[in-house]
Amino acid sequence: MYEEIKTVVGDKKVDENDTEKMPYLNAVVKELLRKHPPTYFTLTHAVTEPVKLGGYDIPMDTNVEFFVYGISHDPNIWSDPEKFDPDRFLSGREDADITGVKAVKMMPFGVGRRICPGLGMATVHVNLMLARMVQEFEWFAYPGNSEVDFSEKLEFTVVMKNPLRAKVKPRI
User: Fold this and answer.
1) H-type helices in 10-165, by residue range?
2) Does the pLDDT value for residue 145 go beyond 70?
3) pTM, whole model, 2 decimals?
4) For position 16, what pLDDT does the model report?
5) DSSP letter at 161?
6) Which residues bind heme (predicted)?
7) Taking a C-beta distance cutoff of 8 angstroms, is the pair 106, 37 a contact?
């Protein structure tokens, strides 16, 4: 990722316009949102007419919620869903429409009329923050932390159960 940043911006500070020209950075952010959505559930939706969903009859006026994590980790939708693999979005193997317009394969910000109005701003800021963190610092595994524990716990959002510890060194 650092090489991509250097190639795109050289020695200047990366800005939000630069991040649009960084396919690997964008793939990493999409994979982060797929593997670790900000929340596990969407806002409640009310069924407007009777429908059959996954073999189940859902009557009108039923409130439904979507388990975002389950969708983004479904082996019927994703190849090797437990693996963190940003390349899945570069090779054309898999699609990452996070708005749900083409298909609902992941929805970290919801979909449809209730999609998060901050989606655009959030993705720009996540891309920019990650790019700047990589541009400005070298990141190393903390001594004794060779394995990353991806266990999560539910708070207001989904967070790591055991915080990720890293050594950070400014790039000179």
Assistant:
1) 16-19, 23-35, 68-72, 119-136
2) no
3) 0.84
4) 94
5) S
6) 116
7) yes
Tokens of 3: 């090489």
Residues present in the chain in total: 172
The answer to which of 11-15, 47-51, 73-77, 94-98 has the lowest mean pLDDT is 94-98
Map residue 106 onto helix, strand or coil.
Answer: coil
Query: Is 154 within a domain?
Result: no
The position carrying tokens 């919801």 is: 110
Amino acid at position 167, single letter: K
| 125 annotated ligand-binding residue | no
Element (H, E) at 5: helix 2-9
Helix boundaries (H) for the chain: 2-9, 16-19, 23-35, 68-72, 119-136
Question: 138: which DSSP letter?
Answer: E
The enclosing domain of 31 has a CATH number of 1.10.630.10
CB 2 within 8 A of CB 134: yes
Residue 73 falls inside a structural domain: yes
